[in-house]
Amino acid sequence: MRYIAIDVGSTFLKAAQLDVQYLAITNMESIRMPEPLPNENPLVKEWNAIQLLELMQGLIDRQLASCPGCKGIWISTQMHGFIITDEYGVAVTPYISWQDERGLEYADKLGSSYFSALMERVGEEAWRRTGLWEKPGVAAVGLFHMLQQADSGMEIEWEGQGTACPVSMNDIQTLGSKRLCTLGGYLIQSLTGSHVCHFTNAAPTGLVDVRAGEWDIDIVRAVGCQALQFPRIVVGTDIVGHYHSRWGAIPVYPDIGDHQASVLGSLADATNEAIVNMGTAGWISRVSDAYHIGEWELRPYFEGSYLPTITKLPGGRNMAVLVRFIADVGQSIYGTALTEDTLWERLLAEADRAAQYFKTGKGQSSNGQLHVHVGFYGKQTVADKGAIDNIDSDNLQVGGLFAAAMEEIAAIYERNLYVLATAGEAIEQITFTGGVIMKNAFLRDAIAKAVGIEAVMAPACDEVFHGLLRLALVSEGLYASVHETREVLLQAIL
């Protein structure tokens, strides 16, 4: 009684088998996400869609070879991005990811950036229906940018997409025969021929009324993409098609947003816990039964509930800026290169040593402790600049640098957790998830101390797979709802 699960993140593509009988995750495989296609514009982040499809299908086929009698395929992917295919499911654009910010380019004919022009066309009231913050890395903005450039007669060639795929921007002008796909929907279309996507992946495109669970025609018209063929939105988790493989016809389930799968797999209590996730980037979230707009994004969850969520928080990539600097010093000045794991281990040890030193008061210089502003990436939440200040002749040391950076990150999470607390009942516990925070005890302790409430680790790693396992248990008919699966998984893991 095993299912195959695919998790397509920003850094890794992973596969595993979900054993619904023994409540186990087995046969895990992981490969790195390919590099984005080369582009002179730093705002553009595109991936070869055909290459991604081959990698995803390769993971599935290798898992099927060792999973006799496979009950089905579950898919979870990164959100916000999109691919346009022809009527046969062949990609005619690269995969445009959530990291793409081409909408920030200035457009002479619009008198503003593409992003600002679209937000003005949509209007605040309509955009609020999406549940999203105004941000450039969503499909609605990328599509608007493409269509505006096509209308201007600009012909942009995409390199590296493959000879089997048309690459001219002019192809976008013939929209009637083209299909909009989420990343997971693109894989489902290739496996089954079905043009569908799950609600949790449709909503992050910025083209959906999150309360109605439908494509928002007003926003679609504002973008100008109404001639596209839109996928059918699936709200539940019923089978959407079959993959006719050499191992037989394998049921395929809808693509689940990696955020929702991660929250589900954290096994946090739905009423009074906040989930703090830190991977490449960071977010905090909680579950709510109410449709309540506030100072957060409101994302669809399962069984009619929502996830008030604060996104674009500092994460692993912020700390990586400092790590790369230290690595460069070691390599260029001393001719020494350490593995990434060894370098992190030593830096965290130095940060801990520095923190202990400051606690004694011995490390307090006349200028006080070093201060690191970690906003090294644009438009992060409450992290709008990158700088190191409060430097004097005594306090600029490696350990103090990293301790100060992590304490700044902890303060940012503290402020945003207070905001999230107003979205429901009082938050009584924090559950940590995500690869970066799981490996960083210093940062976990700093956040817990700043907030002043109990904080625990998610009981299992690979929370996306555990979230998909909970869905598989319901699909198998063993439980009536995902809520019922929490206690049984907690008992199995602990």
From TrEMBL:
Q: Which InterPro entries match?
A: ATPase_NBD, FGGY_Carb_Kinase, FGGY_N
> Coiled-coil regions in this chain?
none
What organism is this sequence from? Paenibacillus plantarum
Looking at the record's lineage, which domain of life comes first? Answer: Bacteria
- Extract the Gene3D superfamilies matched here: 3.30.420.40
UniProt name for this protein: Carbohydrate kinase FGGY N-terminal domain-containing protein
Which SUPFAM superfamilies does the record associate with it?
A: Actin-like ATPase domain (SSF53067)
What Pfam families does the annotation carry?
FGGY_N (PF00370)
